[in-house]
Amino acid sequence: MHEPYLKAMAALLRRSQPRHDLYTVFGHCMEAMALAIANSVDLRQREPREARYLDIVGHYRPDVLDLFPQVLAELVQALEAGPGDVLGALFHDLELHNKARGQFFTPYTLSRFMAKVTIGNPESVRSIIGDHGFVTAMEPACGAGSMVIALAEAMRDLGINYQRHLHVTAIDIDPRAIHMAYIQLSLLHVPAHLMVGNSLSGETAEHWYTPAHILGGWNARLACRRRHEPTGETHVHPVEAPPAPVPMRHTVPPFCEPRASTPAMPQQLTLF
Ligand SMILES: C[S@@+](CC[C@H](N)C(=O)[O-])C[C@H]1O[C@@H](n2cnc3c(N)ncnc32)[C@H](O)[C@@H]1O
């Protein structure tokens, strides 16, 4: 399904050779796309991100720079054809994983299987959503987002609107992976907070909020849930509390009051 788009994206990026190193161009292309998306919604981090964007584009002549939006257009078409880890597959097709010290991403078919296993009985997910409004998922080593995308697709297949009823926290130690995951989760409109960080030590360096997170008022929804969770049931994330993004002016935090009689139950799915 994604083959023609993957071929087109690889061919576009290869046009930058031999003048540029493919690994660097790929990284810059991903970062520039992620910055462009983030800057349309995350106003608090806009200024330094705009400066970084201008720094990246300053490296290239117009003919190479023109390749970046063309790669994005192919990616959008690929994801419109169907969900998948398109950028993870592109990373492998370009053989960049060898250069990245053997960074392998899970094949999407396997991620889909694991998503179904993670969900388990669909009725328990439906019941959590019925009681709390949403489920949360944690991906402590997200790569390009394969498992998160598969989870969203699995929920969609169950008739659950993941754009409203799923919130994802995703971490990766490699900024390039976070850029790839951020782009794909943004385009699929998955509410998510992604961090460049070390899941083992708990250190975090960067926070990326998808448009679905910001426009959906997820800071308020998550804070509301934290207020209503009994102390013993609060999920401990292995990272420090993130800075809150500035919401868009037209954002209306959704009503998120859980029922008073809601029983405490685990709401977080863990992917790894
Ligand atoms: C094998 S890949 C899997 C990625 C993704 N979960 C998937 O299924 O495609 C492992 C990922 O873990 C990341 N990683 C390794 N050590 C980490 C750490 N301590 N904290 C966060 N991420 C880490 C790597 O950068 C890499 O992207």
Task: Spell out the key features of this protein.
51% helix; alpha/beta; 272 residues; 14 helices; five-stranded mixed sheet; binds S-adenosylmethionine; globular
Fold blueprint:
Layout: H1 3-14, H2 22-38, H3 46-57, H4 62-65, H5 67-81, H6 86-93, H7 96-99, H8 108-119, H9 122-132, E1 135-139, H10 146-157, H11 162-165, E2 166-172, H12 175-187, E3 192-197, E4 204-209, H13 211-215, H14 218-228, E5 268-270
Parallel strand pairs: 1-2, 1-5, 2-3
Antiparallel strand pairs: 3-4
Helix pairs in contact: 1-5, 1-6, 2-3, 2-5, 2-12, 8-10
This protein binds S-adenosylmethionine.
S-adenosylmethionine (SAM) binds next to helix 10 and strand 2.
Structure overview:
With 272 residues, this protein is of the alpha/beta class. The protein folds into two domains: 3-99, no CATH class; 108-270, no CATH class. 51% of the residues lie in helices and 10% in strands. The protein has 14 helices and five strands. Helix 1 (3-14) packs across helix 6, helix 2 runs antiparallel to helix 3 (46-57) and helix 2 (22-38) packs across helix 12 (175-187). The longest helix is centred in the N-terminal third of the chain and has 17 residues, at 22-38. S-adenosylmethionine (SAM) binds at residues 88, 103-106, 111, 140-143, 146-147, 171-174, 177, 198-200.
